[in-house]
Amino acid sequence: MKLSTRSRYGARLLLDLALNQGQGFVQLGEAAKRLGVSMKYLEQIILPLKKKGLVDSVRGAKGGHRLAVAPKDLRVGEVVALLEGGMDLIECAKDEGICGQSPNCVTRRLWQDAARAMFEKLNEVTFADLLKEQGEQICPAGKG
Q1: What is the C-alpha to C-alpha distance for residues 83 and 77, in angstroms, rounded to an integer?
Q2: For the whole model, what pTM was predicted?
């Protein structure tokens, strides 16, 4: 299974907003340059993040985007589930009517368990954790 670029870039965008939260609102063009992603694509990704209330936006010359929640309150799994359209790896996980074998299918249960385990792991990680890890990679040990 591969996560879509929406999830990967969405997480990177939110981390960028968190890293730059002390600078006020972040213009999407600046974030796009830092992330190496097209601004058009980030415009598509930010819409569900705004709708969910994870990002605030202001128009105008000094406008841009910022996190609407504290990084410690934002979990990676929440973002992935939002941008992937749910937490299921397979269609029949939530609708067994899709396949006549679903009620007795051991592989269906396997995929459900795998998705549950993956999202449990992703939900253990907050954006504050990522900020800390990012800082540790930037700063030499003992230097900040």
Answers
A1: 10
A2: 0.84
